[in-house]
Every structure is written in C-alpha cells, then in structure tokens.
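Researcher: Next sequence.
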Amino acid sequence: MSPRKLLLVNHDGLSDTLLLTALVRDFQRATGGEFLVDVHTEGMPLWLYNQHISRLDWRPVSYDGVTPLEPHEYAVPERKLKLVCYDSEIQVVELSKSGHFAASDSLSHINAYHAIHSFAHDISQKLGLNAVVPIGEQRGDIILSDIERGWVSQVEELGVPHMFWIVSTGGPYERSAMWWDPVRYQRVVDEFQGKITFVQVGLANEHHPRLRGAIDLVGKTDLRQLVRLMYHAGGYLGPANFLMHLACSVPIRPFDRNMRRRPPKRAAVIVAGGREPSQWIAYEGHQVVHTNGMLPCCAIGGCGKTRCEELRPLESHPETLCSMPVSISRGVVTPRCLDIITPRMVIDRIRFYYDGGAYSYDDASELTGATKPAE
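Model: Next structure:
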C-alpha cells in the first residue's frame, strides 16, 4: 500500500509549532512509514532540515472567507488563507491542544499529562488510530545543519566568549498575565554580574523592559537566528513561553571554544506562577517556579488567564482577565501568583546549577563590559 498523505495544520502560535515537531517525530516512529506528513504552521523556519516531513503538492493562497470553496480547498479563516491541495489524496488535519481530551479541556486539572501529549491524543482521535501515539521524548524536535552548528554565536561576535543565559522579561501585550516585575529580573541579573552573561531577546513590537548589564538583542534576531542563539546558550530565564519550549527543543552545543565539554541538558528557570499546572509545562532539567495550590485561583491546576488589565475600553473576553491582579510601583500590574515570587527564589534556582557543579561561572576578568551590540 502507498503511504497516506497528511497535511497537519495549526496556527495557534510558535509554542504549538514546537509541540507539533515532537508529535510528528513520534508519530512517524510509531507508524513506521505508513504516512507522508507535511505541515502548515506558524514559524515554518522551525521545520528546516526536519527529516520527518515530506513536501506534498499543495499551496496556501489568499481567501476572502466568502467565496465557496472548491473540492480539496480548506479554509484557514484566522489567516485569511485557503489551502489548495492539488493532490486529491492529501488529507488535511487541523490539530489543536485544547478541548479534545480531559487533560486539555480545562487548565484546572490534576493529571499526569504534559502539553506535548495533547497533540498525540488529538491526532489519534482524528485519524481513528487504535492507540494514542506514544511520546518518546518530552521535547520538541529542532534540527540544526552542520553549517549552523559551526557558526559562532551573535554573542561571541560581540567579543563575549562565555557561555550565556537567554532572558525574556515580557512578551505579547495580550499575555500580560505572564509578566513578572522587571525590577525583580534586574535584581537577578545584578546578583550574577561578572559571573553570568545574560542576553535579552524578544520581538521589537512586544513588551520587553530592558535590563542593565544584559546584552540587548531584542528585535535583532529572526526565528532561525534565535534557534542558533539558543544552541549556544547554556540557560534560559523567563516566563513559560515559546522560549521555554525552545530551550528544551534545541540541542545544546557539546563543547565550548576551548573544547571543554558542556552539560548535556540546558538549564532553565521558569517564572511560571499559577497560570498553568506545573506538570503541563515542566521539562526535564528545568526549574519551574510555580505557585499551584498556593492561591484560591490556582488551587487545583492553573487559572489559564492571559491578561492583568484591560488593554482598551470594551475589551472583549473579560473571562481572560486575572482575578487577583496586584498593582506595584511604577504602574506595573502583575498577577498575585507572580507577585509572591521573590528575586531570591529565582536567584537560588539559578545557583543550584552552579552549586551542584553542572555549570561554572564566567571569568569576570574576561568580560568586555558590553551591554548592547554596536548599531
């Protein structure tokens, strides 16, 4: 029998794309070549060099949402696109990590599932498989070419030779319930001044309060550059966002420039609060600073709220607003679940990696003192 042809579709964000890379990897391993799989997702550069996908005969075109669809055309209304399949054997499967089984039906749950399992349940249900696709590795599947692995990092190009940590202080404005106080991030960076090099990243059109003493690459990396930067990074500090998933999905550079072996797992300290259940987002080797079970709003699982305040008058979806916002100085509003997380708690989690011997601090005498790349 010839392989079945699948086009997997998801436009729920970059984090979901990373989860889907894991699903495709383990789906292909479990089905043993029974399917040819192609994808249409956010962040298509994340799929570069992925040997588990095949290029099928289809293409996306603009769609007004009104014109009737022809056979083998599939609408993606949120992107004003339709997918035109020129091969009638292609089966389009829209995948989602929410609403298809108990673990993702509500974030207020206590079970053993990680978010990565949600797509495995969804595709198994939609294809009528006899069993749920087994997830073999709880991480995404990002591939770097040999050429990419051989390039120096953007940080090393600036004259900083050390292993560094990537830090994120914010994110999209519609996700303000994930923002920790930037002053507290600053205290963490100050605590390790001269010991750990921090590199701040993020999109230029998002909320990313700048940190003194950190190398500023906000708005200065495209998606593939960010993958390469993560390859060189020793750790990640920030909220439970796309970068958290990327930190676990990208391989870690095995040796430094002096051919000293680096740790096999990338460190990460996640300032999570109580928005999501800790087991839903935790990866091996990560330190998740969560408050599940410590507040009434996240007493069981997580609250799932996305914002702390109205972005504009008559904001839709008021159910997404945090029920316990805290106004702190400088006009910053943060969820109570993040407000009770202190800088010392985060500092101690970072120190664990160094006190335990997995990492060594920078040699302060080699630091260049640069905080921003040259314009």
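Model: Confidence is low (pLDDT under 50) at residues 364-375. The first helix runs from residue 14 to 31.
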